[in-house]
Each structure stands twice: as structure tokens, then as C-alpha cells.
Amino acid sequence: KQSSAADPNCEWVTFKEVQDCWKTAQAHESKMYNDDGLASETNKLLTSDDYKDGVWEPFWELVHQHRNKRWSAKDPGIVVLDCFAGVGTLIVALKRLGIRIQCVIHCEHDKVATHTFQFNHDCQYNPELVNDGIRYV
């Protein structure tokens, strides 16, 4: 590494040093992501009998019950707390599953994502949307 004559605090890095760092980073990344001997934590969960019996199967059973449920006019639907709401993919998924939704409380710190969520879903925010009967907070 050489110091610049114009600015003694500025260091120059040679092309060879950059190339060596790049090759080292590629080797580390390759080792980290291509180690077939180690199962990822999510794969371990899906093969765990405790997880499958206690969480996975009951979850999907509940989803199928809600999907096939005949909603009465008296049943107001569920209240959804959508943390990290983003563009509202959770709401789209719940609607496609046929789950009746009474109210959505969406939490998002990003102002652009909040605008996008409201523009995509909230008919009070975007009057061009069809009123789906869901209250958005």
C-alpha cells in the first residue's frame, strides 16, 4: 500500500491486492454456501417429527379448515396484525385462502412501504379500489 502525495491519509491499493481479496472472498463464500455436509436450520425443522407433528401439520389443518369454512353473516372475520407489512403480501395470501378479514393493523416503519400498502389495499386511502369491507389501521 502506498500513500498519496496529495493526501497522506489516502492509501492506494494495487490491482493485485484487490484481485487477491476478491479470490479469497469467493473461496470463503463458496465454502460457506456449498457445504453439503451441513443441513440448514430450516431443513432440520422440516425433518423434525416434533416440528411436523406439533406445528406444521396443525397449521395446515387450520388453514384448510378456514379455507373450507362457510362464513356466516354474524361472523365478522379475523383481526390481522401485519408486522413488517411491506406491500401487503400477507393480506393478498389471506384473501386468496378465502379467510374473512375484519380488520388489518399494519406496522411498517418505511414511509414508502406504508404508502404502497395503503395504496394497494386501503380504499379510504385510494378511492379507486373496490371496498372489500376490511378496516385498515
From TrEMBL:
SUPFAM superfamilies reported for this sequence: S-adenosyl-L-methionine-dependent methyltransferases
Lineage of origin: Eukaryota, Sar, Stramenopiles, Ochrophyta, Bacillariophyta
Identification of the protein by name: Uncharacterized protein
InterPro entries attached to this UniProt entry: SAM-dependent_MTases_sf
